[in-house]
Amino acid sequence: MDLALKLETTSTVPFHRQLYDELRRAILSGRLESGQRMPSSRALAKALGISRATVLFSYDQLLSEGYLKTVPASGTFVACQLPDELLQATSPLISPTSPSRLELSTYGETLATVNLQPPPGQKPLINFSCYGRPAFDEFPIQLWRRLLSRACCFNTTILDYPADPLGYKPLREAVTRYLTQSRAVRCEPDQVVIVNGSQQALDLIARLFLNWGDRVAMEDPGYFEARCIFQVQGAEVLPIPVDHSGLVMKYLSTLTTPIKLVYVTPSHQFPTGAVLSLPRRLALLAWAQQTGAIILEDDYDSEFRYDERPIPALQGLASSDSVIYIGTFSKVLFPSLRMGYLVVPQQLVPVVTRAKWLIDRQSPLLEQHVLTDFINEGHLERHIRRMRMLYAQRRETLVQALTQGLENQVTIMGENAGMSVMVQFHTHWKDEEIVDRAEQRGVELISARSCYMKAENSNGKFLLGYADLNSETIAEGVWRLAQILKA
To answer: Taking the domains of the chain in order of start, what are their residue ranges?
Structure first.
């Protein structure tokens, strides 16, 4: 039998792989027909001038994938039904008709009307628009790879469904120690729920607590995606103004309508950067206890304060079960890790466990193992210390460049913290014009308009992310902005 097989002696691809590819192509193209008998391994090896072991290796691979079959005492044959055919569904013959409108749920209809922002792109610009992106080139990727390899060697149970939807218990214990020490959060490991980032945490809480028509109080300006989650759940979102000391309590306490939930970012208000003062924290806790409202505390990047110690979490001050705490590793490590945590009151643990189980069973177990080792071996604290110094330098570079380059044409807002700065440019141009002119000069900006429920309050305000930009890039970007705004 002449199979017209060709093996390249100069190729870096091993002979057994070349032979496998050649035979598979011959089977799929029909040169080797269904049911046709294959030459013996000894005969084929002699014909090709290779070892019989190489032929056996290729045959075994084709047998295991279903291209060949063996018949006892008869030999090896091409399979009658090839595995590729099993992956191809036959299209049914259906007469074309006019498409009918698929009826969405109330959730779906509401979601269809929400104007979500596209995720930030990877453009070859001086990109100030990625206000939550950490410095990827400073992440200890070799260390992470080593921990990942070690976790893969752990045992096969790491591939199974985890026993606890709340998350890998050693990780929850590590997170508990970390939060107790760094954020003064009061909790036990069984109150910690590992989630796929803070976005899932927000969605879980909204599903569990909000009914259609419930009212949610929220900082204005505030986190746009959180507002969307509350709105598509059917809640009415009420804006509460923010000043240099955070949420203005007098507006919240004078509301006459019942409030189910209030969403706050007290440690570093998004997007203004304000810190909720202690008197207002105590007033907010007292108001929640009096009204029965739930406080949802989003502590998204409190690790990065540059002139003083981190502010203790609001949750640690609460004497009742009024606060649900959200944290994430997306800012301190990297966003694609998709790992965050909820700290819930003890009475909510059973229902949150059920909700997490129904939504996605569990967060990825392999990454949880790696993250546990990363925390327990001290790598997380060391990485945060390094990033805190780096981001402080980059923030100082940005502030100095803005102050010197734009002088009275810019107002810089917020505390000396975080991974972004909110600024207001004093110019007669509209935000869209500034964005377009900046892009023409190779600078990408993002307006803070989506953060405001009243768009007229956002004129000239922008978020400048700096964590993933080096000092030279920051200075060059601000210089280009100055040329635009002074034109």
So the answer is: 15-84, 126-130+382-485, 140-377
**Two structure tokens written together for 43:** 């005969």
- Listing DSSP states for 442-467 in one string gives TEE-EESGGG-SSGGGGTTEEEEE-T
Residue 35's identity, in one-letter code, is G
How far is 441 from 449, CA to CA, in rounded Å?
A: 22
If phi > 0 it is left, if psi is from -120 to 50 it is alpha, else beta; for residue 95 that is beta
The string of DSSP codes covering 63-108 is: HHHTSEEEETTTEEEE-SS-HHHHT-PPPP-----PPPPPPPPHHH
What is d(CA 330, CA 317) in angstroms, rounded to the nearest whole number?
Answer: 25
What is the reported pTM? 0.83
Kindly state the tokens that stand for 158. 């790491």
Type and span of the H or E element at 340: strand 340-343
Class of domain 126-130+382-485: alpha beta
3-class state of residue 43 by DSSP: helix
Q: What's the topology of domain 15-84?
A: Arc Repressor Mutant, subunit A (1.10.10)
Closest to 314 (Cα-Cα) out of 250, 249, 252, 267: 267
CATH no. of 140-377: 3.40.640.10
What are the tens digits of pLDDT across the range 439-460? 999 999 999 999 999 877 788 9
pLDDT in tens, 178-222: 999 999 999 999 999 999 999 999 999 999 999 999 999 999 999
Copy the structure tokens of residue 401.
Answer: 């460049």
